[in-house]
Amino acid sequence: MKFQLKNIVAVMALALAFTSCSDDDNNAITGEGNLKLEFDNVYGDANFAFNTPYTNSNGEVVKASNAIYIVSNIVLTKEDGSTYTVPKSESYFFVNEADAASTLLNLPNIPAGNYTKVTFGIGVDQAQFNAGADGQGTMWTDAQALGMTWSWAAGYKFIKFEGTYTSSTTTTDTQYKVHTGKTGDVYNYTEVTLDFPENALVRTNITPQVHIMSDLKKVIDGTTKINFVEGASVMGGTKVQNISANNVPTMFEVHHVHND
Questions:
Q1: Integer Cα distance of 211 and 108 in angstroms
Q2: Domain region containing 9
Q3: How many domains, the chain?
Q4: Keywords assigned by UniProt (predicted)?
Q5: Least packed by Cβ within 10 Å: which of 88, 182, 224, 238?
Q6: What mean pLDDT value characterizes the chain?
Q7: What are phi and psi for residue 241, nearest 5 degrees?
Q8: Are residues 54 and 69 in the same domain?
Q9: What is the rounded radius of gyration, in angstroms, for the C-alpha atoms of the chain?
Q10: Of 156, 151, 101, nearest in space to 123 by CA
Q11: How many CA atoms lie within 13 A of 52 on its CB side?
């Protein structure tokens, strides 16, 4: 009888301990915190740096001098499948290789939770564009300051990737320009979803930092390959459409998550 009583007491104590732990976990995942997305530009297997020669699969050697892209419409997914959408007015960023601070996106007021993936756009979605300059706050003027606009009718440049190239037939440095954005009736806005290799634990006292590798080589040397000898200004038509549809979705990969 004493043996049975001891067993019962032990089971009750164990159940109470599990309940206490569960309550602690539930209490820990409340409130709001911050999350950071770090965009680290690379070129294929190499670190990316301006004015550094990189040889593409077509034999052309490029040296970039300008690399900017718009990240927008960020949505975070929790491990239970629920999502948090960062307000559009707070969810556009110009990731500019020339400005180190711009490559680290700070997202405040994120509901505490365990997040497993992120979705974002490259460019400005059509609804935002259709809202006009008055509906976009400082986005348009911010873009103008960085040379990320055409005329208002044409709208934004989603990616600006510029520099010089040489090839077997073009032996002196020749300027190239790649600008993506709306072409005719095709909007070319691209959405990217990335799984995290480990959960991002947003807490009131923990700010996860998600390290995203951005392969700029994929802009011009991905599924769709750009040959600058055929035309060094890539700013419209099917080439931009193919870059947006085929290359941009493969540019990004989460390398790791810091939960500090």
A1: 17
A2: 1-30
A3: 2
A4: Signal
A5: 238
A6: 90
A7: -60, -40
A8: yes
A9: 24
A10: 156
A11: 11
Q: Mark whether 24 and 43 lie in a shared domain.
A: no
Q: Indicate whether 38 and 82 sit together in one domain.
A: yes
Tokens of 143: 């873009």
CA distances from 155 to 4, 179, 226, 257 (A): 77, 12, 23, 34
- 135-163 pLDDT tens trace: 788 999 999 999 999 987 779 999 999 99
Give me the phi and psi of 228, to 5 degrees please. Answer: -70, -20
> Residue 142: how many CA atoms within 13 Å on its side-chain side?
14
Contact predicate 98/161, CB 8 Å: no
Q: What is the pLDDT of residues 90-142, one digit of tens each?
A: 999 999 999 999 999 999 999 999 999 999 999 999 998 888 877 788 999 99
Q: Are residues 205 and 193 in the same domain?
A: yes
> Does 181 share its domain with 254?
yes
